[in-house]
Amino acid sequence: MKNRPRSVVTVAEFKKMLPRQVNHNTLMVILDYLEQSNKIVVGLKGITWIHSRNENLRKAVVQGLEL
Q: Which of 34, 42, 46, 63 could cross-link with 8 by S-S, CB 3.0 to 4.6 Å?
């Protein structure tokens, strides 16, 4: 594996990174919240962080053309 973290991680891999005390149902609620607030995308291959604090990117998205 490379020195940089992967951009997609499965839920199972993510759970292994967390302390054992984290309940599966609690984790799923947290992931649902993050997805609803447009901070992550949960897809077939796993979880991807999409949130960005870049103001120029936010402006481009707001002013962009919807397809």
A: 46
Alpha carbons 32 and 42: distance in angstroms, whole number: 9
Strand partners, 48: 41
Query: Do residues 39 and 53 lie in contact, with contact meaning Cβ atoms separated by under 8 Å?
Result: no
Query: Is the Cβ–Cβ distance between 31 and 11 less than 8 Å?
Result: yes
- pTM for the complete prediction? 0.66
* pLDDT tens track for 12-62: 998 999 998 999 999 999 999 999 988 888 888 889 888 777 788 777 767
